[in-house]
Amino acid sequence: MVVIRLSRGGSKKNPFYSLVVADSRNRRDGRFIERVGFYNPSARAGAEGLRIDEARTQYWVDNGAQLSETVARLVKFHAKGAEGMAAVKAKEVAKAEAAKEKAIAEAAAKLKAEADAAAAEAAAKAKADAEAAAAAESAAAAETPAAE
Questions:
Q1: How far apart are the first and last CA of the chain?
Q2: Which of 10, 95, 97, 140 has an alpha carbon within 20 to 30 A of 125's alpha carbon?
Q3: Cα–chain-centroid distance for residue 66?
């Protein structure tokens, strides 16, 4: 079966992917039939991050090639254009910010709960100490008249 998938290139921790048409039995980065585009997930703001030859991709799909899940997602984004990609990036950034804020709020709530627990424990200890002191005073007062 023929598939359109990503083939990894680039250096360590700096990925670069080629969109290739390949036989599914070949290795990920092995022999391929045709290169139909590229995807650079770490592209700078002004650099081109995705290029797909839509005519060749459509040709291969019409002749029975299957798109991998990731390539299908990238083709969908590419169809939206540069504005669509920018919107997706903005949505990802907003989602990351929301997750960060949620983590900060949870940490603050945890600290507040710990502080409340510590305050309650201190109040209970102070009350117990006051009761013990009152009991000691009453015991001392009870002993004093008996000593006379």
A1: 108
A2: 140
A3: 29
